[in-house]
Amino acid sequence: MKKFYQKIEDYVFIIIATLVYLIILLSNRALFVGGLESFWKLFVDVFPVILIVFLCIFITNLFINERQIARYFGERSGWGAWFLAIALGIISAGPIYVWYPLLADLRDKGMANSYIAVFLYNRAIKPQLLPIMVYYFGWVFVIVLTFYMIIASVINGIIVNKLMLPHHKNGEGTS
Amino acid sequence: MNNKKVQEALSKTVTALKKALPDIVGVLLLVGLVMQLDFGKIAKFFTGNSLLDALSGALLGSVAAGNPITSYVIGGELLDKGISLIAVTAFLLTWVTVGVVQLPAEILIMGRRFAIVRNLSSFVLAILVAFAVTLTVGAIL
Fold this sequence. Notes:
The complex is a heterodimer.
Chain A: H1 2-27, H2 29-63, H3 66-73, H4 79-91, H5 100-108, H6 113-122, H7 130-137, H8 139-163
Chain B: H1 3-34, H2 50-63, H3 68-80, H4 85-97, H5 103-110, H6 112-140
Helix pairs in contact in B: 1-5, 2-4, 2-6, 3-4, 4-6, 5-6
């Protein structure tokens, strides 16, 4: 029975999303079709990134052990880890949620929550999108915003680490 | 390469994939719906009060989802309509750092406390950064 509930729990979010679509189908067919079309377009865009993320998970499981993660991204890894988390966040591609499985896996191996939060925050800075942002808001705004976002990412990492209780450090408390 | 080690790594990866893929598809389904909203009509949410507008911008960005380019286009439109830079900056920031739509998936994969603390902290920081950016840009230009 416990296994059954565990299985249901794994699918609870997609079940809720499907129910939302079914309700919309009954009340607004155009919204239903538009939502599904956008979903498919997003899925096709995101699919290569999902493959890259799972390839990263495979490679980390194969070549990187817990001791190495604790050394480079552990609680006492120092300034290098902050810079590395910032850089990896900036260069990573695709939407933020695609990276959750890899980060959860790395945290199980000893990566500190602060660096995960920094990585996720810096996903917001995308060098390839900067020219478009400059077109709309100008150089000064983009440079100032990027500078403050990097600082905010570190503050975010510190806050997340401070507010995680010791028994939540490795993601326990997951619903 | 040790065959057993490869098999073990592959098995762990498949387990992670099976656990995360339904959540990712669920997020994509909901983001697809959010993308149907007409964000061009959101100018009416802003009052002219800096703090309230920053809060409104941050709230709208938090519930919105999709490609960041869309947020630039909407942000540009809002500036043209006379909405303050503070509000637009808060909107742009929470669009990419806070995710109400993907929060359930973040809770399921990363843990409830982590997801809530990270999103709340990002929300508050977005408002502070919006003020800092606007003041700095104002001082430079």
